[in-house]
Design brief:
The protein is α/β, with parallel strands linked by helices. It contains 9 helices and 8 strands. It has a single domain, classed as Rossmann fold, CATH 3.40.50.300.
Length: 212
């Protein structure tokens, strides 16, 4: 049985990490939609003539790398500045239509795991399995701090924490496709859990749905 998995959740909750491990476990394809919005945020010079600019934007996600018009920008889009710009640009309906259309076409063949903010509600409302991931904001900030430190990126915990709170507010209150838990999504709380524990819980839920 081929199926799609939709994973939504707040910033820094571990969506991509869980998606990657589930993709490996079930031999599925992982599509990091958040990376696509980050790539757009990196690419756009301003918000004028968006449609014309997007015509010249080619995003490829291969082997955990984000390729924009032939350039590997993987390490250039993983910072708080791009994160906030991505959250801001994602409010724009032109950008959303452009990326949602691409994402839906990719997932038509089934066998895909998509993670983001509006996967279960907008991109793949017919996904066979849906998750909504949450975690305490302070824990998410600490995870992000450790991630940045491991990459040698200068960072401050309080600034990261405030950015996470702001990102949560922006994502949940935006006019177009706000972050929300759809009624048929399984709530996956990752607070005080290891990635192994979270993935095990997710697999248990997937198995319960697949067996039906």
């Amino acid at each position: 049985m081929k199926f799609n998995i939709a994973i939504d959740g707040t910033s820094g909750v571990g969506k991509s990490s869980v998606a990657k491990q589930l993709a490996q476990h079930y031999t599925m394809n992982h599509l990091d939609t958040g990376a696509m919005y980050r790539a757009i945020a990196y690419f756009l010079k301003d918000e004028y003539d968006l449609e014309q600019q997007l015509e010249n934007c080619c995003i490829e996600l291969t082997h955990d790398k984000v390729i924009l018009n032939g350039e590997d920008i993987s390490n250039l889009i993983r910072n708080d500045e791009i994160s906030m710009r991505a959250s801001d640009i994602s409010k724009n309906p032109i950008v959303r239509r452009f990326l949602v259309s691409q994402q839906q076409k990719i997932a038509l063949k089934k066998g895909y795991i998509l993670d983001g903010r509006d996967i279960g509600s907008v991109v793949l409302p017919d996904a066979e399995i849906k998750f909504f991931m949450v975690a305490d904001a302070s824990e998410r900030a600490m995870r992000r701090l450790k991630e940045y430190q491991s990459k040698g990126i200068a960072c401050d915990y309080n600034e990261i924490y405030q950015n996470i709170l702001l990102r949560d507010m922006q994502d949940s209150s935006r006019e177009h496709s706000p972050l929300t838990q759809v009624v048929d999504a399984y709530l996956l709380d990752t607070t005080n859990k290891t990635i192994e524990e979270v993935v095990a819980e997710a697999i248990q839920y997937v198995e319960s749905k697949v067996r039906k």
